[in-house]
Amino acid sequence: MALLATSDELVEELQTSDVLVLSVPIYNFSVPATLKAYIDLVDRAGVTFRYGENGPVGLLKDRKTYVVVTSGGIPLGSDFDDVSGYVRQVLAFLGITDVEFVAADQLARDPEAAVMTARQQIGESLEQVAVAV
Ligand SMILES: Cc1cc2nc3c(=O)[nH]c(=O)nc-3n(C[C@H](O)[C@H](O)[C@H](O)COP(=O)(O)O)c2cc1C
């Protein structure tokens, strides 16, 4: 059906990808509207999740997922961070639990330090991937 074409395309991309990378700037304490729209398009009953006897079951295969969260001022993991828990919950709902968060946060305070820390974390993750392979 034409109405579902975009959703089908995005779901297929998710079903066939081995690694998932989400880039998530914090906008007004939440995820950007574009990411919310993406989630609405890939979160499909009977396709990417279903309701079982004990509650919802994610139907996507688990795979390594990196979520890069950027912010102007909110520190990732602080009481003001409503984004990482939400993104983790959405991914788990779909069956994806192997999730690693990379923080490039508080960019308005010290952008160079934030980017350096994020690069360092990405480098460490890649080393682990190389060791695992
Ligand atoms: C509309 C808008 C809302 C934002 N709201 C927040 C916010 O609530 N908390 C925060 O720490 N940063 C906020 N920021 C800063 C962004 O998180 C920051 O600009 C972004 O992570 C860095 O990406 P950029 O280099 O593309 O701007 C906001 C930015 C925009 C444009």
Q: What proportion of the residues is helical, as a percent range?
A: 40-55%
Query: How do the strands of the widest beta sheet line up side by side?
Result: 1-4-5
Question: What is the number of helical segments per DSSP (H or I, 4+ residues)?
Answer: 4
Whole-number tally of structural domains: 1
Strand tally is: 5
Bound molecules: flavin mononucleotide
Biggest pleated sheet: 3 strands, parallel
Fold-level CATH name: Rossmann fold
Q: CATH homologous superfamily, by name? A: Flavodoxin domain
Q: What is the rounded distance between the termini?
A: 41 Å
Write the SSE topology.
Elements: H1 5-16, E1 19-25, H2 33-42, E2 49-52, E3 55-58, E4 64-70, H3 83-94, E5 99-104, H4 111-132
This protein binds flavin mononucleotide (FMN).
How is this structure best described in words?
It is a single chain. This protein has 133 residues and is an alpha/beta fold. It has a single domain, classed as Rossmann fold (3-Layer(aba) Sandwich), CATH 3.40.50.360. It contains 4 helices and 5 strands, in the order αβαβββαβα. The longest helix is centred in the last third of the chain and has 22 residues, at 111-132. The protein is globular and about 45 Å long. The mean pLDDT is 94. The site of flavin mononucleotide has 11 residues, from loops. Residues 25-29, 70-74, 107 line the site of flavin mononucleotide.
Describe the structure using short key phrases.
globular; Rossmann fold; single chain; 42% helix; 3-stranded parallel sheet; 4 helices; alpha/beta; 133 residues; two-stranded antiparallel ribbon; binds flavin mononucleotide
